[in-house]
Amino acid sequence: MNILLTSAGRRSYLVKYFKEAIEPLAGKLHVSNSTELCSSFKFADHTLVSPQIYDKEYIQVILSYCRKHKITLVIPLFDIDLLVLSRNKRVFLKNGITVLVSNAQIIELCNDKWLTYNFLTKNGFDTPKSYIEISLLKSDLDRNLIHYPLILKPRWGMGSIGVYRADNMEELLFFNKYIQKQINECYLKYESSLTPDNRVIFQKMIAGEEYGLDIINDLNTNYSGTFVKRKIAMRSGETDISELITNHRELEEIGKAISAKLKHIGNLDVDILVEDNKFKVLEFNARFGGGYPFTHAAGVNLPKAIIDWLQKNQTDHLKIKTANRIQFKSIEII
Amino acid sequence: MNILLTSAGRRSYLVKYFKEAIEPLAGKLHVSNSTELCSSFKFADHTLVSPQIYDKEYIQVILSYCRKHKITLVIPLFDIDLLVLSRNKRVFLKNGITVLVSNAQIIELCNDKWLTYNFLTKNGFDTPKSYIEISLLKSDLDRNLIHYPLILKPRWGMGSIGVYRADNMEELLFFNKYIQKQINECYLKYESSLTPDNRVIFQKMIAGEEYGLDIINDLNTNYSGTFVKRKIAMRSGETDISELITNHRELEEIGKAISAKLKHIGNLDVDILVEDNKFKVLEFNARFGGGYPFTHAAGVNLPKAIIDWLQKNQTDHLKIKTANRIQFKSIEII
């Protein structure tokens, strides 16, 4: 079994995990990226410099590469890539290639923070109050139905690009305009063009503790487990220090309920904030998230589980081996 | 010889480098930090949770620890720590302890971006035009002596906290106010209180390539070499991908000239921007910088050189072994 990770960028750890997982099968690990300047290339067996994701030829190039190199599993790692590949899942399947990605509708829901908010409120999950219409927000501020500080961010945002705190109306109006400009200047413009009139989301700021969940479904969207991490130190939207928590009943229940309603495939990376002892679900990433390595380091091995599932086997690779352990990100130069 | 790295935070790689360097001497590597939650603690032989740097007892606690554990070399790794320890160098020296830090005047010059700018212009180094008085900036904008985009940042800033681009007067005025608020809300408030009236610096934005220099002086401020890195990919103010360039005459000359004028001790981490083929010196960090591991991975070993110098030996550890190599940051979980 040969595997291709697309848009792998700096996630060299995932390349290592997958290489280790397919070693017993004598499979080869391929990595693609739109530039060869990425750390993930250093650990791959084979690499492909692909066109940009929004290039017309992107799908054709990836598909041809897969056929040529007998790749049967493709795993996208970047949000824009998820959407493009999910829309083309069938083309790949016709060629005997599984793309580990949820259906396009689910990817769109996860990538669009306003659709995520609507999904959460409609299904009874607690989440920070959010707005997409600034006129409604202003009116609710006037009527004391919502209070500063507010968080403004790109509706189709990724990482910490264009995320600002507003403490008053002047800051709110300013950042609303400034974020629009930032969106136009970076890759956020691609997906943002799907909703050209409402590209900024306004959200009640929650200042409490932060958790990250890995909610795992199998290839047929059946629930397989939730792994709970308390984020101890963050840097630019990514977790630096994290505690893997076992037997967190309440968050595991939330994970299970999200899985049942969303019906995603593979990993769903979820951010949760705490306010007054209530868990507020914040955002979804329908892929391996930046916090997955903390789950992996605790003994869970989703790459191996995915391979088991593809081979129609049961998996015993979704178990934590080290309970309640604090783990640290460490930097090396290669 | 036992060594203490203070404010080591997430720089676990430096702990490893220094441990390796003192192994032949049977020395122990100690690390201090104001919280035990840091990756550097994981690799140290011994650790100390110290008071906050601005705490009255900070110096006394560090000094007592050094005496108790027979530490003869202290290396601070964080800008605020540099200033506090440089002011107390003599107290340590009286106890037979070398603090690897420049004199307080030099540290202040490096930590204060306005003093850095004045040092550079007075000594004939090219640098992006900068302002500390907004009234003068406005007047120069009116007279077309400076143009947008401008970069606004905290005068005593570190990392990428509070750094914004302004494309017009509205953005300029807004961010000037907004940055003041951000300074008050984080540790930047400590050093910023040294210049309460002018806490934001305004600078012509240079959009070209970026270089990082490690300018090395020995313990007596004698020039020992300049190592040139072209920054290929950045993330939140830190280098992700970098090319170590050998024999870059022009930048090596700039490094040598800075060393001669500044007379720092140990490593000086310098940011350089390129515009119209001219090298513009931007900022100084009078310590091991975030880009040092790229220099180290190319074969230079400053920890070993420092130990040689302390033992009054010549050093042969300041040589690049791999020429013009592109190197990548890689993330592990420990």
TrEMBL record, chains A, B:
Top-rank taxon of the source lineage equals: Bacteria
UniProt entry tagged with the keyword Nucleotide-binding = yes
Which GO terms fall under molecular function for this chain's record? ATP binding; metal ion binding; ribosomal S6-glutamic acid ligase activity
Q: Does the keyword ATP-binding apply?
A: yes
Q: Which residues form the ATP-grasp domain?
A: 117-311
Q: Name one GO cellular component term.
A: cytoplasm
Which of UniProt's keywords are assigned here?
Answer: ATP-binding, Nucleotide-binding
One Gene Ontology term from the biological process aspect of the record? SOS response
Per the record, a Pfam family?
PylC-like_N
- Report the protein name in the record: ATP-grasp domain-containing protein
